[in-house]
Write a structure and sequence with these properties.
It contains six helices and no strands. The chain is mostly helical and 143 residues long. Helix 2 packs across helix 4 and helix 4 runs parallel beside helix 6. The longest helix is centred in the middle third of the chain and has 43 residues.
């Protein structure tokens, strides 16, 4: 596997991002044009149907990401308990989810110092956290 870092850590799900989404948006535009060209209840219902399918696809994607976020939070809490002092692990477990998700890329050796910087507000955003990571711990199983 390729080494992961800040510049290449974004995960694309090809079926969703490069097939389903573009096709749905083409269908949406096509049906909107058809409704404009030949206004009818059938054309309107086709447009509503395509819009509904887009919403279902987005909802499915968001649910998968939310479930993944919950798993990441649990994994990181277990990691904190194994690697950090109980006090620091408790503070780290109270961090906002976006920061916990960013910290998951930190190697075990730099986790404690990065968490201390996050708690002390030296690293304020997930992007700041990811850019501060020197020894990147790749996540190759995301959806």
């Amino acid at each position: 596997m390729q080494t992961q870092n800040y510049s290449n850590h974004v995960r694309w799900f090809p079926l969703f991002h490069f097939v389903v989404s573009p096709l749905l948006f083409v269908l949406l535009i096509w049906n909107a044009v058809r409704l404009y060209q030949v206004p009818s209840w059938d054309a309107a219902m086709n447009l509503v149907f395509v819009f509904t399918v887009i919403l279902v696809a987005l909802a499915a994607r968001m649910q998968a990401l939310k479930a993944q976020d919950r798993v990441i939070r649990l994994e990181e809490r277990l990691r904190y308990a194994a690697l950090l002092s109980p006090e620091l692990a408790a503070k780290a477990s109270e961090l906002p989810l976006s920061r916990v998700i960013a910290l998951r890329f930190a190697s075990d050796s730099e986790l404690e110092s990065l968490i201390a910087k996050v708690i002390n507000k030296e690293l304020a955003t997930p992007k700041d956290i990811k850019l501060a990571i020197k020894d990147w711990r790749g996540d190759f199983v995301r959806v």
